[in-house]
Structure prediction request, 144 residues.
Amino acid sequence: MKPSEFLDCLDDKAITDAIAEAESRTSGQIRVYVSERLTDNAQERAKCRFDKLGMRETRDRNAILLYFAPRIQRFAVVGDSGIHSKCGQPFWEELAAQIQADLRTGKFHEALLGAIVRCGELLARHFPRREDGTNELPNEILRD
Prediction:
């Protein structure tokens, strides 16, 4: 995937709308981060971003970061301890496999939207929306 192709395919409004829709049924939080930096390890960089963004501060420790680094053709998904304890490693592996399959066929925007939908379904199943629920983290796409 060429970085410009990935970036050109992203529709910020559709993505933020998908995040809002996914979060409307859960107390969980989903964030998207697109990095144009060159890095040796997307997973480590994603974990660092997760921490710097305060994503471990959610009430139920149920935040998920979808991190894409198109210049190095990598992505990572980081979930906090609360959600990981509910879904386990198989969910993350299945999610990563689906994202990778979509990216390989050039479905960049669909890969991201599909990941948001799948994360939202998982979060809703294990962390239903609370009556006093608030959006703990912003929905906009983050970039560097």
